[in-house]
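> call design_seq(struct)
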């Protein structure tokens, strides 16, 4: 099979009961009537993944305009219901206003630094779920919605939204028969992600019961707990908690990948030096030992075991200069405006991403990012390397990197209280 034929199409037709588009619920306060329209899903390979591995394909819904419009209206009303009644998981940052990957990581790193300052180590576990959006149980999701006060006609609307779906797969001119869809929420929809975070609401209660600290961003869950540098075994509460997480996920049709779960032992350099002769705690999830890495990538940021962020900055530098070299080759054929768009898309966006985390780092590391910015400015304006860079940055209305980071740290508060680990 050739690569170009490796994209499968799945057409999911929503053959709904009569009241699917005609419901009177608490969200709208009036009756709406729409005709149902088939929804198309395209099963595409994950970018950069092996196209011959079927596990790397995901169904993405190609929703009609009217379906997206209704999705957005219902999502707005459901979000308002969750906000008004304080039903959100406070430590879930995915798909919530005033929350982002940056606020999530700021909270997590603040917790980790507090523990490091107290002379302890932190065991950080990055849980990996398999195709979480595709395996949600519809009956359980409806139970979750009923549990947060979605009842009557509103619950009937969600029942109709989730049930009675049909789908089939098509490869070139070959098409499979139709089959029902009993699991998952539509990927590509506005409402799907909010339903997913609602589905996960009981997970926060379970984690708090065991006294471990955690933070979620959609299906990315980070669990962490402090331990003494001389401890050879992980805290019992962590082991018990991880086993109950696995069991809860299994009961809720979610799969925890023990062989893809990562762990990081975080502390100051002096604490790591004292504990270098103590073997790392052994953690086993679903029969798979979880190795401790020297660095892990979480929400697009590389975290190392001392939170120096040096590997993260090295990665930014390597990637940014790769794109700058390519843009420089194209520069003779580009206008300044087009060049600036490319630079912002491929280079400065990487410098700006989660920049509040880099506040207070050594000048040596920040200067590496400043060199990237200077190079980008010279390419845009065609300034010689011998010319002073400050007038160029002023011309482009760019703040130097260190000024940007100081501004970011003062203007990006986190709306949820930060909890200390000790």
């Amino acid at each position: 099979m050739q690569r170009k034929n490796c994209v499968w199409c799945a057409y999911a037709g929503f053959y709904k009961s009569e009241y699917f588009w005609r419901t009177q619920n608490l969200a709208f306060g009036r009756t709406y009537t729409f005709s149902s329209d088939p929804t198309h899903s395209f099963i595409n390979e994950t970018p950069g993944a092996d196209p011959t591995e079927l596990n790397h394909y995901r169904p993405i819904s190609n929703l009609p305009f009217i379906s997206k419009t209704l999705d957005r209206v219902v999502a707005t009303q459901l979000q308002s219901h969750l906000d008004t009644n304080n039903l959100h998981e406070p430590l879930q940052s995915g798909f919530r206003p005033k929350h982002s990957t940056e606020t999530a990581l700021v909270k997590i790193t603040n917790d980790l630094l507090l523990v490091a300052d107290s002379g302890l180590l932190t065991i950080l576990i990055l849980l990996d779920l398999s195709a979480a959006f595709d395996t949600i149980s519809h009956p359980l999701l409806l139970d979750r919605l009923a549990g947060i006060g979605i009842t009557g006609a509103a619950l009937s609307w969600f029942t109709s939204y989730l049930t009675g779906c049909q789908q089939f797969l098509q490869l070139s001119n070959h098409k499979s028969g139709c089959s029902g869809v009993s699991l998952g929420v539509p990927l590509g929809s506005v409402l799907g992600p909010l339903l997913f975070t609602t589905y996960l609401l009981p997970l926060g209660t379970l984690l708090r019961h065991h006294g471990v600290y955690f933070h979620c961003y959609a299906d990315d869950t980070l669990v962490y707990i402090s331990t003494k540098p001389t401890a050879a075994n992980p805290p019992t509460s962590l082991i018990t908690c991880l086993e109950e997480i696995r069991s809860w996920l299994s009961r809720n049709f979610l799969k925890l990948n023990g062989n893809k779960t990562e762990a990081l032992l975080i502390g100051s350099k002096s604490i790591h030096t004292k504990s270098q002769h103590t073997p790392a705690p052994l953690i086993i999830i679903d029969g798979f030992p979880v190795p401790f890495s020297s660095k892990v990538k979480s929400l697009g940021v590389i975290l190392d075991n001392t939170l120096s962020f040096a590997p993260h900055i090295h990665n930014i530098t390597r990637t940014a200069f790769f794109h700058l070299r390519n843009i420089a080759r194209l520069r003779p054929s580009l206008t300044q405006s087009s060049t600036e768009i490319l630079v912002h898309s491929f280079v400065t966006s990487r410098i700006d991403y989660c920049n509040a985390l880099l506040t207070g780092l050594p000048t040596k590391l920040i200067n590496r990012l400043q060199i990237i910015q200077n190079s980008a400015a010279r390419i845009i304006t065609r300034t010689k390397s011998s010319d002073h860079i400050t007038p160029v940055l002023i011309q482009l209305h760019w703040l130097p990197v260190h000024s940007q980071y100081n501004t970011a740290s003062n203007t990006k508060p986190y709306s949820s209280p930060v909890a200390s680990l000790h």
